[in-house]
Design brief:
Shape: flat
Radius of gyration: 10 Å
Oligomer: single chain
Order of helices and strands: HH
Strand content: under 5%
Distance between the termini: 21 Å
Helix content: 55-70%
Length: about 40
């Protein structure tokens, strides 16, 4: 994956990433992660 680990992903960046069904799975994962860590 081409995700940058040096800076936190904002919801806008994730939304821009979600273009395909494959990325929707990633978006769901990030939603769960955000709920846990509450950035």
């Amino acid at each position: 994956m081409g995700l940058t680990q040096t800076q936190p992903l904002s919801k806008m960046n994730i939304l821009k990433m979600v273009k395909t069904k494959e990325n929707e799975k990633l978006y769901t994962h990030f939603n769960i992660t955000n709920s846990i860590y509450k950035c």
